[in-house]
Amino acid sequence: MIAHTNPLLLKDIVAGIRLPACPLVFIQLTRAIQEGDQPSSEVANTISMDPALTAHVLRVANSAMYGHPRRIHSISEATLRLGCSEIYFIATALKARDLFTTSLGKFGQTLWEHSLKTGVLARGLCRRRNGMLTDAFFTAGILHDLGKLILQQVTPSYMLLCEDGAVSGSELVARETAAFGTHHAALGGELLDHWGLPETLVKLVAEHHDPQPDPNTSRNNSHGLLAAANEMAHTIESGAPLMERKTTMITADANERHMLIAEFQRQMQILRAS
Ligand SMILES: [Fe+2]
Ligand SMILES: [Fe+2]
Question: Which of 55, 82, 103, 112 gets the most CB atoms within 10 Å of its CB?
Fold first, then answer.
């Protein structure tokens, strides 16, 4: 990769190349779930304004995976029957997929698969840790590597670096910083901020490769959760058994681990079938 003489700045990238636009409904949903007084009705109203998304969410909500005997006919009914968090989960995943898969071919598709896994694992881990910010962690998971899309747009050979399995985590960040003067986590955070997404998400994405404090001694036990989900997603992609993964974010209890993995597989099936 050719080293850029000046650090890449998001404002110059925005001015110079076509970046994926964030669907308005995605921004509205993310704000509703994190900042709204009545997230259920705000989420239902936002989805209902988008006929294609409504039809898609209803199809998933009525799929055999949820096993409801009676057909669900509206988003407000779906929110009542499956819960606001589940409807948010389906709708944001459907909308985010377009960001990754519309224009970047195989690179975008592979990145989307990784992002989806990371989001679903972050959601599961968060539920098991303290249950706080579950929806935010899911969203941060599906957006955490968005900066890679930007780097790929700027330098098409960037994908070769990502495809090199030996280069990941801090090594990737170091190589990106040497070439671009910045890295995908920082750029992703800047893009989310540029779109007006909540600060919690911006911070989670921007810091997902920062050195993490020990979660056992940290006062905030969600520190490192996104990084752990990212690592677990890479483990799954490498074909290594997740049950043997040693991370403090995954409980040592074998039953709990089995439940986390079973839940991950079920949720991936729901989203892949959509
Ligand atoms: Fe990353
Ligand atoms: Fe990642």
Answer: 112
